[in-house]
Amino acid sequence: MKRVWLVLPVLLVWMLAPLPPSSKHAGAYNYTSHLMYCRTKLACLHEIGHRLDQQAGYISQSPAFYKALQMYLYTEMRKPRLTEMPADILELTYRDPDRTSSIKREIYAYLFAWAYGKPELMPESLRGFYDWETARHLMNLLTPNQKLYWLN
User: Fold this and answer.
1) Region 128-134 average pLDDT
2) Could you count the other beta carbons within 10 Å of the beta carbon of residue 98?
3) In the chain, what are the domain boundaries?
4) Which of 10, 18, 43, 62 has the fewest Cβ atoms surrounding its Cβ within 10 A?
């Protein structure tokens, strides 16, 4: 019986803590507990992007988001010079093609962080996929020295 009481706290931490997949990751978001851990502001914005996606019912998985993203990339790639953001999205897309649903979630969060949480910096065709009011609320929680947040 004592072993159960020793294992239970470890199991709860494993299930509810925002654990980064490796030490090279600057942040993590736990979809169950809504806890976010981040070492940098950019990592916090990325993790807030994951929370916005979850709160919107995983809009990153919707055909509308996918089509808007494709059209954005198509338009950007036709320009004489490819900018950094579309190139990063393409790199994310081809990093692990067998994990397309998680890649879409990562792209959604990446776009939010890339725009620094500001609608005016988000490509116009993708702005409507983000709840900017909730985003402002979550970004107001960020403080310079804090690393752990509850995004409720």
Assistant:
1) 97
2) 6
3) 30-150
4) 10
